[in-house]
Amino acid sequence: VFSLIIFSSLLTDGYQNKMESPQLHCILNSNNVACSFAVGASFLAFLSCLAFLVLDTQETHIADTRFKTAFQLLDLILAVLWAVVWFMGFSFLANQWQHSPPKEFLLGSSSAQAAIAFTFFSILVWILQAYLAFQDLRNDAPVPYKRSPDEGGMVLTTLPSPSATSPMNMPTTGPNSLSYASSALSPCLTSPKAPRLAMMPDN
Length: 203
Fold this sequence. Notes:
The protein has 5 helices and 2 strands; from the N terminus they run αββαααα. The protein has 203 residues and is mainly α. The chain is rod-shaped, with a radius of gyration of 40 Å. A hairpin with a 6-residue loop joins strand 1 and strand 2. The protein has a domain of 140 residues. Helix 1 runs antiparallel to helix 4 and helix 3 packs antiparallel against helix 4. Helix content is 54%, strand content 3%. Strands 1-2 form a two-stranded antiparallel sheet. This is MARVEL domain-containing protein. It is a multi-pass membrane protein.
């Protein structure tokens, strides 16, 4: 909104002719660079605000966290950049208006003062925008990943204790009962049996 006010003020009444000449001059000390700078900067600032307004409406649909972080970082950088630009613009426009001869132009003084005032207000707005962008970037910063000491190790699971009705606690009678009970055990609980040594007679 402030960019539109600066743009429209200088574009409509920012160029006036002197009484002795029909040629148009910038009302800011007859310096066309000052008016061109203010008009161009306000127009670019308005376009950047429109672009970020469109991106803000699509932020909820962005699933990639890296793109969202890059978007917030770009928002912060542009806000700081525009704050610096408008600070320089305010100093430049105020200096040119101070050195302008009084009553050199019949019209346009109110437009020049409005443009200078809203240039100063733009500095405050962009500083606030930079602060909000920094807060969003800090709040949404990814948590650094720390590898735990146990990560990557073998995960051991314990089996539940056998119940009274499990095959391991059933009476082991018969030649096949031992093999049946041992087959119910998990392979991780059974250990290989060592070979049995037998004493052989000398003959």
